[in-house]
């Protein structure tokens, strides 16, 4: 198997990373997924990520990380989750759901896994247009981490740098959904809501952005009954 066609997918169980997974497969990559259980408020998204891997027929590993210092309403169940007045207000400020250093940690794990297994790329569903304002989902962050990948690894120093691939970075949520629909992404298996539970709350930032994306794309969200 060609090294540059082996890839590590950072899979959250949400629609963005699910789209990246199926995009990678369509592009001829041979992906393996890393799913992170980092003490988030619920395990619903982990279950979704596993279901996506099963549907796609890819291997996965669940990585458990403990962040005892918390620092986010996604980690502290006693903290109130933010409610935006409307979708236009989402992303105006960095919300309490930001988890300090989360994508830095995830990309570092992905880098270690990729170098150890000979993969040429780490893929992430980061999106900097319709998003919640997280600093670790922006192009300058991805660019900076790409330099880390090159300078901080044996592979990079030997002229075989592992790439960060973020194909959705400059796409709107509706564009992502249109792409995923063409790729036959099983969006009914995905989970976006910060609150967990049996059905999406419809009021958290993630739900608002997802709802807007499907509405603008003129596609029915199969995860919402």
- Proper CATH architecture: 3-Layer(aba) Sandwich
Stretches where pLDDT is under 50 for at least 5 consecutive residues are: none
**What proportion of the residues is helical, as a percent range?**
25-40%
The CATH superfamily appears as HUPs
Number of helices: 7
**Can you count the beta strands?**
5
Order of neighbouring strands in the sheet with most strands: 3-2-1-4-5
How far apart, in Å, are the first and last alpha carbons? 42 Å
Count the domains: 1
Please identify the top-level CATH class: Alpha Beta
Give the percentage of residues in beta strands: 5-15%
Describe, in plain words, how this protein is organized in 3D:
There is one protein chain. 36% of the residues lie in helices and 11% in strands. The protein has 225 residues and is α/β, with parallel strands linked by helices. It has a single domain, classed as Rossmann fold. The protein has a five-stranded parallel beta sheet with strand order 3-2-1-4-5, sandwiched between helices. Helix 1 links the parallel strand 1 and strand 2. Helix 1 crosses helix 6 and helix 6 packs across helix 7. The longest helix is centred in the middle third of the chain and has 16 residues.
């Amino acid at each position: 198997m060609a090294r540059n066609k082996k890839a590590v997918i950072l899979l959250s169980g949400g629609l963005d990373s699910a789209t990246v997974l199926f995009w990678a497969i369509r592009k001829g990559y041979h992906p393996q997924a890393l799913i992170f259980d980092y003490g988030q408020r619920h395990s619903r998204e982990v279950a979704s990520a596993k279901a996506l891997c099963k549907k796609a027929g890819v291997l996965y590993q669940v990585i458990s990380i403990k962040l005892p210092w918390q620092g986010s309403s996604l980690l502290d169940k006693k903290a109130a989750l933010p409610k935006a007045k409307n979708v236009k207000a989402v992303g105006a400020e960095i919300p309490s759901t930001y988890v300090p250093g989360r994508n830095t940690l995830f990309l570092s794990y992905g880098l270690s896994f990729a170098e150890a297994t000979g993969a040429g790329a780490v893929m992430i569903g980061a999106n900097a247009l319709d998003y919640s304002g997280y600093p670790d989902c922006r192009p300058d962050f991805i660019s900076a981490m790409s330099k880390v990948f090159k300078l901080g690894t044996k592979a990079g120093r030997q002229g075989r740098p592992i790439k960060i691939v973020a194909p959705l970075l400059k796409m709107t949520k509706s564009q992502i959904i249109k792409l995923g629909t063409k790729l036959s992404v099983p969006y009914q298996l995905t989970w976006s809501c910060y609150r967990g539970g049996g059905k999406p709350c419809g009021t958290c930032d993630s739900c608002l952005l997802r709802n807007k994306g499907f509405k603008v794309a003129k596609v029915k969200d199969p995860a919402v009954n």
